[in-house]
Amino acid sequence: MTVDDIAAWVEGLGGVLTLRPAPGDGSPALAHGDLFFYWAPDGVLPPGQPFATVVTKDYPGEPSSGLDRPGAFRVNVAAGSEEFRRRTGVAPHDATPGATPDDEVVAHPVYAALGWLCVVNPGERAAADLRDLLTAAHGLARGRRERRQEI
Fold it and tell me: Residue 122: exposed, middle, or buried by beta-carbon count in 10 A (0-12, 13-18, 19+)?
């Protein structure tokens, strides 16, 4: 899977606003080249965090995922507590993130306690799981937004 494949899959779920920081748009240079996916059917950036991201570099102060390799990237997904527990066997707040091997769903190296999972360089082995996770995260984000609008 490529970054473009991931973006097309997520955007195909509908109601998605994708932020693509780039030079000249006022975004921090560190975020250039990364993608941030929000549930925003009205096209307006909602408050809060995205439901998924694609990062193309290791961020300073975070454990390395080996994204310094040409073409390497990591897909991060707000999976939620239930899905996180199902995939890892532990509650998010009990996770001890470790290595981030290629093409494997693992706890996010920084945001595991918040129920985030990730996949570095998704390929054939993790593709179906990643699509399932992205679909579920999209649904969770949609549900949160709809509940906020009812209040």
Answer: buried
The closest of 65, 53, 72 to 123, measured between CA atoms, is: 72
pLDDT above 80 for 53: yes
Q: Are 39 and 138 in contact (CB under 8 A)?
A: yes
Around 41, how many Cα atoms within 13 Å sit in the side-chain half-sphere? 11
What are all long-range contacts of 140-144, with beta carbons under 8 Å and residues at least 24 apart? Answer: 140/51, 140/78, 140/80, 141/38, 141/39, 141/51, 141/78, 142/15, 142/39, 144/39, 144/48
Give dist(CA 32, CA 149) in Å, integer.
31
The residue with tokens 């939620």 is: 80
pTM: 0.95
Pairing type for strands 74-78 and 16-19 reads unpaired
Tokens of 113: 């306690």
